[in-house]
Amino acid sequence: MDHHTASSAELATDHYFIQWVKHPNEESTLYWKNWLEMNPDKAGVIADARQLVLLLSQEEEEEDSDELDNIWEKLTEARRNDNNQSGGTGKLIALWQNKKLISIAAAVLTLIVSGIIFFQYNNKRMVEYATNFGEKRTIHLPDSSIITLNANSTVTIPTEWSDDSPREVQLKGEAYFSVTHKVNKQKFIVTTSEGIQVEVLGTEFNLSDRGKESKIVLASGRIRLKIAQQSDDKQLDMKPGELVTVTPDAKITRKQVKPALYTSWKDNKVYFDDYTLAEVATMLEQTYGYKVVFRDTALADQRITAFLEVKDLDDILTTISETFEVDITRQNNQIIISSL
Q1: Residue 170 contacts by C-beta under 8 Å, 6 or more apart in sequence?
Q2: What per-residue string of b and e applies to 128-158 under the rule 16 or more CB within 10 Å gives b?
Q3: 328, 295 Cβ separation under 8 angstroms
Q4: Helix or strand or coil: residue 250?
Q5: How far apart are CA 52 and CA 18, in angstroms?
Q6: Residue 232 to residues 33, 119, 152, 235: CA-CA distances in angstroms?
Q7: Are residues 84 and 196 in the same domain?
Q8: Helical segments of 85-181, H only
Q9: How far apart are CA 159 and CA 268, in angstroms?
Q10: Together in a domain, 62 and 156
Q11: Are residues 261 and 134 part of one domain?
Q12: What total number of domains does the chain contain?
């Protein structure tokens, strides 16, 4: 995490910052003392982040678990209602009279608004990072591995990892993983929403868990896929430069590709590999949140191969419009494509 640009909510989830607040030592104290001297304008951000960590620590250590479950339930419901509303007055939810719980709830809500959610699962404390449509996010893990999260995606990890058990991550959407190799060969396992497991020792790969297919591109290193089937699980070892596609009925295809083309999204580039416009439309819906409508259904079968630098959605739409000589308009949450 870049501490210079991080918000208070992001700092409150940074492993190094949390360790300093909860278990300060000479090294960490010196680091943050020098950092504040170099960045005096960030004193307020540091103070707010420290308060968030302390409040969440109180929640973890002192509050009744049933009451905390109630907090999460109500805050999650409030977030869901807020996401479903498109204007009008917001819904006011009366939570608690307990001032301490209100403070904790305020801290929790700050993280929720920032796309960061803590929760308990199988006695493990978890944190979920999420991105909105059109947003990317870089996440630094406690083991120094890095996840680049694409738009409209979520990744869930434990807040702490032990040295004697696999490092486990859950993904829904798309992400690029740069995994740190551990001397003890500790495994790193990513599980998709469809149940596909990617088992890693130390490598870089792209994993897309969107729509009807899962796609894995291995940039370097070695990974093993575990794919659930009706009779038993199938295992598949991948080599660098391979793209493996898995369908919902566990059909597998693999081919050699240039990984850089399939990971270009993290550098604000887009690669269409002989895509139909229908496939491009699916990407636009998943990444930017727009519903694409073809006035002439035959347009959906047109194909495009292109490698684009993309600052925003208009760059893609302009390319499509000029390539196929079509008219493209945006109305509310729809993109309408029509023949000229």
Answers
A1: 155, 156, 157, 190, 191, 192, 193
A2: bbbbeeeebbebebbeebebbbbbbbbbbbb
A3: no
A4: coil
A5: 10
A6: 55, 31, 32, 10
A7: no
A8: 99-113
A9: 29
A10: no
A11: yes
A12: 3
Determine contact, residues 166/188, Cβ cutoff 8 Å. Answer: yes
Are 257 and 301 contained in the same domain? no
* Residue type at 127 in one-letter notation: V
Give me the percent of the chain exceeding a pLDDT of 70.
Answer: 76
Calpha distance 110→206 (Å, rounded): 30
- At residue 16, φ and ψ (nearest 5 deg) are -65, -40
The backbone region for 274, taken as left when phi is positive above 0, alpha when psi lies in -120 to 50, beta otherwise, is left
pLDDT of residue 99: 43
Ramachandran bin of 138, using left for φ above 0, alpha for ψ from -120 to 50, beta for the remaining angles: beta
- Summarised one tens digit per residue, pLDDT across range 68-108 is 455 445 444 544 554 454 444 333 333 334 444 444 455 55
Q: In whole angstroms, give the CA distance from residue 48 to residue 78.
A: 23
With vertex at residue 127, the alpha carbon angle to CA 122 and CA 130, rounded to the nearest 5 degrees, is: 130
- Could you give the count of Cα atoms lying within 13 Å of 57 in the half-sphere of its Cβ? 14
Whole-number CA gyration radius for the chain: 22
User: DSSP states of 273-303 as a string?
Assistant: EEEEHHHHHHHHHHHH-PEEEESSGGGGG-E
Report whether 153 contacts 194 (CB < 8 A): no
Note down the domain range covering 248: 122-267
Neighbours of 41 (CB within 10 A): 7
What are the tokens at 263? 């990971």
pLDDT digits (tens, 9 = 90+) for 271-294: 888 899 999 999 999 999 999 999
Residue located via tokens 């909105």: 132
Q: Does one domain contain both 263 and 273?
A: no
CB 116 within 8 A of CB 128: yes
What whole-number distance in Å separates Cα of residue 217 and Cα of residue 241? 7
